[in-house]
Structure formats: structure tokens, C-alpha cells
């Protein structure tokens, strides 16, 4: 991929798997407000969406007070240390990030997860120094598929769309990247099917994050 110097990455299912923590937090919120727990696979499919969208997917008629309560319970449980401790980096991700960093690519994370949580997870795995920027859900008014979080990251890095690529596993990642004028590499490491990813029109499709080394001719 020519002329790319900046690689922005989604977090969940692109770099890491925090699904067990998300499932526990979602169901703690649902049960605390008097609703039955969601099926784990249903929660996994919503990872990458905002908390508003996630809870509305399980409770279409939820009122604003209950929605606010659900989000508060989710965040309190997540920030207790559960999310950091239950998240692991996907296979090949650490080696690939280190290879990209060593080859002078500028790296960033753009996610619907909170920046503070992402930074703690990266720190736990000794990866925080590899990233020049982390943009999370509370850093912008509108999250993916709106392009604002990607534009925010590029502004911080003083990067142009022509030199930037976004890597993500979700259709929202592809839509956000296109809206920001970026090339996008879809990685089929999450619940979204390859067929759905292809239909969204990424520039490249890979099976796992480690294949970026081939895309950028590092192996």
C-alpha cells in the first residue's frame, strides 16, 4: 500500500478481545435494571457499537432514565478493573505492531471504547509507547460510523487522508473510514462475516491483523 505513513486501528476484535468483560458488564446492567441477561453471542455482535445502540438493541422500548442507568452500571463495572483484566491481545497483534513501529509507521487507535480503558489495556501489555494517539468514545460527540473520531486522530497527528489507512473488523469501521476519505483494510477477526465486510467495500480484506506485514511488504 503506497504512500501510507499513518495506520489507525480499531480496538475490539481488531487488536484485542474484550468480549468476556463486555458480556459481563452488559448483563450486569440489564439484570440490575430488572431485565433478563442477553445471550453472549448477541452481545458479541454489538461490540463496536455505542452503548446507546447496544442497549437499545436488547431493549427497543427502553426509556431514557433506564438507558442512562444501564450505561452507568456498565461503565462502573468496566472501570472497576474487570475490562482491563479480562482483555487479551489477539494472536500476532503484538509482533505486528512492533514490526510496524520499527518500520517507522505512526500508529493510533480509534475506537468506541473509552480512551482511559484502552490506555490501561495497552499499558498492561507494554504497548502504550507504540501509539501516538488514542481516540475513544468520550473524545468526540459522534462515534463511528460517523468519521469524527478518525478526523480527530488525523488532526492530532497532522496527517492527511492520502497518507492514512484505517484497519477495522466492523462495517462501521469501513463506513467511517470512507466518510473520512481514508483507505480501509478490513480484518475478518470479529463476528462480522467476510461477505458483509466485502459488501461494505474495503480496499483490502485480510483474515488476521498479522497479515498487515504482507500488505506493507514487511515480510
Class computed from helices, strands and strand pairing: alpha/beta
What is the rounded Rg? Answer: 17 Å
Q: Name the beta content range.
A: 5-15%
Indicate the CATH topology of the largest domain: Rossmann fold
CATH class of the largest domain: Alpha Beta
Number of domains: 2
Order of helices and strands: EEHHHHEHEHEHEHEHEH
Low-confidence stretches: none
Shape from CA axes? globular
Report mean pLDDT, rounded to a whole number.
Answer: 96
CATH architecture of the largest domain: 3-Layer(aba) Sandwich
Order of the strands making up the biggest sheet: 5-4-1-6-7-8
CATH homologous superfamily of the largest domain, by name?
Answer: HAD superfamily/HAD-like
Protein architecture, described:
The chain has 219 residues and is an alpha/beta fold. The protein folds into 2 domains: 6-17 and 88-215, Rossmann fold (3-Layer(aba) Sandwich), CATH 3.40.50; 19-86, Putative phosphatase, domain 2 (DNA polymerase, domain 1). It is 47% helix and 14% strand. The chain is built from 10 helices and 8 strands. The protein has helices spanning 19-32, 40-46, 51-58, 64-86, 93-102, 115-124, 148-157, 171-179, 194-200, 212-215, and strands spanning 6-9, 16-17, 88-89, 106-110, 131-135, 164-168, 183-187, 204-206. The strands form 2 sheets. The chain has a 6-stranded parallel sheet, with helices on both faces. Strands 2-3 form a two-stranded antiparallel ribbon. α8 (171-179) links the parallel β6 and β7. α1 (19-32) packs antiparallel against α4 and α4 (64-86) runs parallel beside α6 (115-124). It starts with 5 loop residues before the first strand and ends with a helix. The model has no long low-confidence stretch (mean pLDDT 96).
